[in-house]
Specification:
This protein is α/β, with parallel strands linked by helices. The protein is about 45% helix and about 15% strand. It is built from 16 helices and 14 strands. The strands form 4 sheets. A 6-stranded mixed sheet has the order 3-4-14-9-10-13, with helices on both faces. A hairpin with a 2-residue loop joins strand 11 and strand 12. About 55% of the residues are buried. Bound molecules: pyridoxal-5'-phosphate. Pyridoxal-5'-phosphate binds next to helix 10 and helix 14.
Amino acid sequence: MKGYYGEFGGQYVPETLIPALDELERAVSCAFGDDIFWEEFSSFMRDYVGRPTPLTCAKRLSAHYGIDVWLKREDLNHTGSHKINNAIGQILLARRMKKERIIAETGAGQHGVATATVCALFGMPCAVYMGTEDIRRQHINVERMRLLGAEVVPVKSGTATLKDATSEAIRDWVTNVDSTYYLLGSAVGPHPYPYMVKMFQKIIGEEARSQVLDKTGKLPDAVIACVGGGSNAIGIFSAFIDDHVELIGVEAYGRGNGKNGASINFGIPGVLHGARSHLLQDENGQVLDTHSIAAGLDYPGVGPEHSYLSTIKRSGYRLVDDSQALAAFRLLNSLEGIAPALESSHAIGYLEQYAKEHGGTTVIVNLSGRGDKDIHTVLEEGL
Ligand SMILES: *Cc1c(COP(=O)(O)O)cnc(C)c1O
C-alpha cells in the first residue's frame, strides 16, 4: 500500500489535509525525477552546508575499545547537525511549489534553527512552533531563530514540548494549507514525509559508504546511529541496507526509571502525528511523558521505516541511558577533541557494549551533531 512500510506509515490526517499531501506527493515525485532539482540540492550541500563531511578515523577511541571506529562528521555541517540537509531539500521543494510561508516544529531548537536559516537564505517568512518548556530550556536557540528573522510561536498545551509543538504546527497547516509549506524535521509524519526526509538525508550514507571503501578497502561490520524520529539513522542506514552490514539504532533510555524516548524498545504500534509506528503509550492509548537528557531524542514516536526494519530484524535498536551518554560526551572530548551533541553521544555510548561483544571489528558511528548547545547541560551534571 502507498506510503506503508509493512504495517507502519500511512496518512492518518484530517480530511482537509489529504489534498495538501496529494499536492506534496506530486511535487516530490516531479522534483525527484528532475536532474536539475538534484543538481541544485548538491550545489547547496557543497557551497552552503560544507559537504562532503569527513569520515574521521578515531584513533584513540579505537585503541580504548579495541575496535576500529570511524566517525561520520555531521557535526561539521553549517548550523551544527544533519538537520540542515533536510531543511535545504524541503525549502527547494517549497519554492518549486510556489509556497509563500514556511512553518516548522522544534524541540531543542536544532530543526528550528536549520529552518530559520534556510528561510533567511531564501527570504521567506517563517514561523517555528516550540513548547514553552523547551523555550525555557533552549533559550540560545530561541534567540538564534529570532535573529534569523523567524517568529517563534510558544505552545503551552500538554507537556509544552516537541509533541505539543508538532500538533500545533499541524493545526496551522490545516488552517493555511494553500499558502503554507510545513517543513517537518525528521523521518516521521504522514506519507510522503518519511520517504522525502530519507531521500534528503541519504547523502550521509552515500558519502560514508564511498569514504570507508576508499580508506579501508572494505565495508564496515556495523553502522551505528542515534534514533529520535530516526532521520540521521535512516540517512546513513539507507546506503548499507543491501550489504552485509549490521545496522544499529540507539534509543534514549533516560534515567532508566520508565520515562524514556525508546519507542521501538518499549512502544506499542499506534498513531501519532499522521503515521502508524511504535509509540510510547499507556493501555488506554494515552501518549506517555518522555525523558532524555538529549532533547532531540525526547519524543514518544519514531519513523515508520524504523518500526518496519525492526520487525523484519534488518536493524536492531539498543538502549543507552543519560549517564552513559554523558560519559561518552566526556570521553570523545578527551580522547578525540570532539564535543558531540548529547543525541550523538548516545551512539558513541553504545560502543562500550558493542566492543565487549565484537572485538576487532570496524564500525562507523554517525556523529549527527556538535555539542556546543549541550555544554550547559553537561556542566549542570558536574564535570
Ligand atoms: C534532532 C537531532 C537528532 C534526532 O533526530 P533524528 O531525526 O532521529 O536524527 C539527533 N542528533 C542531533 C544532533 C539532532 O539535532
